[in-house]
């Protein structure tokens, strides 16, 4: 339901004094509610309901009742109607921390803190949002109120790995590969921001007019250290008629603003050798970062980690949980890390 297009309007109904039901509802009551609530009808099954007390646990056809062993912080419940509420984005993430893999959880944090929602029936399999449902700062504040609760450490770690204001799943995955540590399969290149507004000048007859461009990934803003540097992910939608012309106009306006946007197409993103060259040779040089010079063995292990991260990110679809790490491609990629560690130095 949190991915429903009209869900952001419900966020204004956060209950400052949340109270979970003390017992599980009957199956007939749940079925009646699912049929009468407009937003409930948008939910995909099975439905998970929350209640207090171990005696409230219940599993029926089409829904399951789980229990919460702590008092939810203020604002953790959102009123849907006079008789029902749903969990906040932060409480949802805490619940998902028990079933999602670490990478799945990090990508879900990016989605809820981002400008998109995965929606199989939507254009490109997602819908765009004007504002995020939450932020990494809000999640951090929520976690300060639930210390010691199962799932909280995993969510805290995922939040530290996540990014605010990503506009698509691929932007979230690209940001992870760029910024995460070498030990996690990334290139350890700091990100300044995602989709931050830059006021540029129009190119045309009315060049005095200013308008806003939002580069996907900002690595440096224009300043004394040199031009701004950013990354743009170009998916298949950028091949549509007229889109490449608009992309060229966008790039030229950013270049005129002294901001260099490097475009990454899907095939380039999937090529570890291409990304290695772009990130470790071109981008690091542009940013004035020291060259990365690992030993032969360390280079082999880091390469295997980058390919394992790519494999697992590719396996995450945002619809199935706890399964991506067990995909054959991911298992093979992780085995390759161990093989690289154990390889003799002369090989």
Can you tag this structure with a few keywords?
347 residues; alpha+beta; Endonuclease, Chain A; four-stranded mixed sheet; three-stranded antiparallel sheet; 14 strands
Short characterization:
It comes from Paratractidigestivibacter faecalis. This is DUF559 domain-containing protein. The chain is α+β, with helices and mostly antiparallel strands and 347 residues long.
Computed CA radius of gyration, to the nearest angstrom: 23 Å
Overall pLDDT confidence: 89
Overall geometric form: globular
> What is the β-strand count?
14
Whole-number total of structural domains:
3
The helicity comes to 25-40%
Q: Reading side by side through the largest sheet, how are the strands ordered?
A: 9-12-13-14
| Protein structure class | alpha+beta
Main beta-sheet annotation: 4 strands, mixed
Whole-Å distance between the termini?
A: 53 Å
Strand content: 15-25%
Unreliable residue runs:
none
What is the helix tally? Answer: 12
Order of helices and strands: HEHEEEEEHHEEHHHEEEEEHEHHHH
Structural summary, described in words:
The termini are far apart. The chain contains 12 helices and 14 strands. The strands form 5 sheets. The chain has a 4-stranded mixed beta sheet with strand order 9-12-13-14. Helix 5 packs antiparallel against helix 6 and helix 11 (296-315) packs antiparallel against helix 12 (328-342). The relative contact order is 0.09. By secondary structure, it is an alpha+beta fold. The mean pLDDT is 89.
């Amino acid at each position: 339901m949190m991915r429903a297009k009209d869900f952001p309007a419900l966020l204004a109904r956060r209950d400052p004094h949340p109270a979970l039901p003390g017992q599980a509802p009957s199956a007939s009551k749940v079925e009646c509610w699912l049929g009468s609530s407009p937003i409930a009808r948008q939910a995909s099954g099975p439905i998970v309901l929350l209640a207090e007390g171990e005696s409230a646990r219940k599993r029926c056809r089409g829904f399951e009742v789980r229990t919460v062993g702590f008092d939810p912080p203020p604002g953790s419940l959102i009123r849907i109607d006079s008789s029902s509420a749903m969990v906040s984005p932060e409480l949802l993430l805490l619940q998902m921390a028990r079933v999602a893999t670490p990478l799945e959880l990090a990508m879900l944090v990016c989605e809820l803190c981002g400008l998109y929602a995965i929606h199989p029936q939507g254009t490109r399999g997602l819908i765009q949002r004007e504002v995020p449902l939450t932020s990494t700062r809000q999640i951090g504040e929520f976690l300060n109120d639930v210390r010691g609760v199962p799932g909280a450490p995993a969510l805290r770690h995922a939040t530290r790995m996540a990014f605010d204001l990503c506009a698509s799943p691929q932007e979230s995955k690209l940001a992870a590969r760029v910024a995460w540590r070498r030990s996690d399969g990334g290139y350890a290149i700091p990100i300044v921001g995602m989709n931050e507004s830059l006021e540029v000048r129009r190119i045309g007859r009315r060049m005095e007019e200013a308008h806003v461009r939002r580069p996907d990934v900002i690595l440096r803003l224009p300043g004394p250290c040199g031009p701004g540097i950013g990354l743009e992910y170009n998916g298949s939608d950028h091949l549509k008629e007229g889109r490449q012309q608009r992309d060229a106009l966008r790039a030229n306006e950013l270049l005129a603003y002294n901001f260099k946007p490097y475009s990454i197409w899907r095939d380039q993103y999937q090529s570890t050798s291409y990304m290695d060259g772009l990130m470790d040779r071109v981008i690091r040089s542009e940013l004035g970062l020291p060259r990365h010079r690992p030993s032969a063995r360390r280079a082999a292990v880091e390469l295997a980690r980058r390919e394992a991260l790519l494999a697992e990110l590719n396996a995450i679809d945002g619809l199935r949980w706890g399964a991506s790490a067990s995909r054959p491609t991911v298992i093979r990629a992780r085995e390759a890390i161990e093989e690289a560690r154990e390889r003799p130095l002369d090989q």
